[in-house]
Design a protein that fits this description.
Number of strands: 14
Distance between the termini: 23 Å
Shape: elongated
Helix content: under 10%
Length: 170
């Protein structure tokens, strides 16, 4: 699920960047450090929307660098158990398939794929007996997140296709 929330970040700048464009450099560094990153607490930072406040810098006595506290608003993506999402299949093998939901990687085990679908090693896909439903690399599928694991800097998900209206999106 997507959220628009207020966050804080510390920007560390080397003295070579001090000058008339200091605040522009702080803003640019915020965008490069934060966008695309992941925190276990809030999820994946998709985009910084506004910078609310750049605090006074604090000099690091040992190096001469300056720490700037920055408050900003960002759009973040945090997956939840039970959420139904669209994804793209990135890898298919006999134990299941890996999908991408934006920045999130999701694994669907063979046991969470409907029983009428079997792995075809020749085509590297899952297909039903009639061969009218084929899920292979690059296909768009709808899945249900049945579990997540949160690390300090990443989130992983486990998905399922064992519910109504889940599977290949045609």
């Amino acid at each position: 699920m997507f959220y628009h929330i207020c966050l804080e970040h510390q920007i560390l700048l080397h003295p070579q960047y001090f000058g008339p464009r200091l605040m522009d450099i702080v803003k640019k560094k915020l965008f490069t450090e934060v966008e695309g990153s992941c925190t276990g607490e809030y999820g994946f930072v998709i985009a910084v929307t506004t910078i609310d406040h750049i605090g006074n810098g604090v000099i690091d006595q040992g190096q001469g660098s300056v720490n700037f506290p920055v408050k900003y608003k960002a759009i973040v993506y945090r997956p939840f158990k039970g959420e139904v999402v669209d994804s793209i299949v990135r890898e298919v093998n006999k134990i299941g398939m890996f999908c991408e939901i934006g920045p999130l990687t999701c694994f669907i085990t063979r046991h969470a794929i409907p029983a009428d679908m079997e792995f075809n090693p020749d085509r590297e896909c899952y297909q039903n007996q009639d061969e009218n439903v084929i899920i292979q690399k690059g296909d768009e599928i709808r899945l249900k997140i049945i579990g997540t694991r949160v690390d300090a800097n990443d989130i992983f998900a486990i998905g399922s296709l064992m519910d109504d209206f889940l599977g290949l999106i045609s």
